Amino acid sequence: MAKLKKSSEGWFVLELIIKFMRFIYLAWGGILLVMLILFGRPHLEVASFVVHTPLVYLFTSLWGNGILLGLGVLLCTAALIELWELISLVLISVSRGSRR
After folding, report:
1. CA-to-CA distance for 82 and 26, rounded, in angstroms?
2. Where are the chain's structural domains?
3. CB-based burial label for 33 (10 Å; 0-12, 13-18, 19+)
4. Contact between residue 76 and residue 34 where contact means Cβ atoms under 8 Å apart
5. What is the pTM of this model?
6. Which of 30, 37, 44, 61 is the Cys-Cys partner for 76 at CB 3.0 to 4.6 Å?
């Protein structure tokens, strides 16, 4: 069985799959977190019964909602950057293939 070289087709497909999966989980997590905050659904009161720490109380306050909203927007932005890299990788591969 032949070993795959760095420039072979197998590595390219594997890299595409990995980048696409990263895009999916970043976009899903960001959209989920933003929607939970905007509709007022993150219920951390259950955690406050188990653990009485200031960190739990921080995330149940308005400041915590702002932090979680910022984290969701950051995840969505990271998903867009990952999508940009994925499209760039495909376009570079297509342009190299057309030169051959």
Report:
1. 9
2. 16-95
3. buried
4. yes
5. 0.73
6. 30
Residue 75 to residue 69: CA distance in whole angstroms: 10
Write the single-letter amino acid at 47: A
Can you read off the two tokens belonging to residue 50?
């188990």
DSSP state letter for 3 = P
Cα torsion at 25, 62, 58, 71 (round to 10°)? 20
Token readout for 73 is: 């927007």
Tokens representing 28 are: 């899903």
Length of the chain: 100
φ/ψ of 8, rounded to 5, equals -75, 170
Measured between its terminal Cα atoms, the distance across the chain in Å is: 26
Question: How is residue 84 written in tokens?
Answer: 């940009």
